[in-house]
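Reopening this ticket.

The earlier resolution said the output was attached, but the attachment link was broken on my side. Pasting everything inline this time so it's all in one place.
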Amino acid sequence: MEFEDRCHKVQEPKFDCLLFDLDDTLYPLSSGIAGHVKNIEDYMVEKLGIDESKIETLGNLLYKNYGTTMAGLRAIGYSFDYDKYHAFVHGRLPYENIKPDPVLKHILKNLRIRKLIFTNGDKDDAVRALKRLGLEDCFEGIICFETLNQPCPPQGDEEPKIFDIAAHFAGSGTADELPKTPILCKPNVDAMEEALRIANVNPHKAIFFDDSARNIEAGKRIGLHTVLVGKSQRVKGADHALESIHNIREALPELWEEAEKAEDVLYADRVAIETSVTA
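Inline output:
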């Protein structure tokens, strides 16, 4: 009976999954990988024919109201191939500027708990970044753009009708009146719940690491334990704040304590079993 009680305690940890954002969470954009914003702007001009003078205002409005510029572009009426968009925006990034992080790899390898990447980016972007960091074998899987979204349906011959979001807000329009996007991405709560469902993650037993205050707040709304990365002060919805992902152990020592207790219990039980067999 005592052995069964011990096993039950080992099998019921407080947390059983860690969810990590990628860009500016596992590595800082200051490492030299920044440039995707410029690539998005170039795509809007070169591929969608948007007037260059409108790009900055439009991009800011789309990002603010839809979570990503891509989601906003689809919402207001633009249609494009998602794979080609990602290839244009991420394919030209200088991944060689991302350096291996053996310290983080050691930390992750010593966390004997399920670990997943949860990024708004495409899978190829995530895989390339993780390989550069030397962390490709540290995670069970990647929740990415393709996980949550089907390919964009081909555009017909008709000229797309574009919703003028700038004029909408210049008048008396509100965010509640904006057209919906077909793209699922953070910080959309529905998208985050769907991601957890697909990955079979219980939000109440998972810790979510992200550099975005909006994503953190959304994560808290669906029951996740949240950690804001890259900041020293907590924001609304954040249970912890880390200036660096390397500070996980200092902020969440219980992750190591639970693992050590589990090992101690299992070791004690093995010794007890071996002793009784020997006797």
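Reporter confirms the inline version is readable. The CA atoms of residues 240 and 251 lie 7 Å apart. The longest strand covers residues 114-118.
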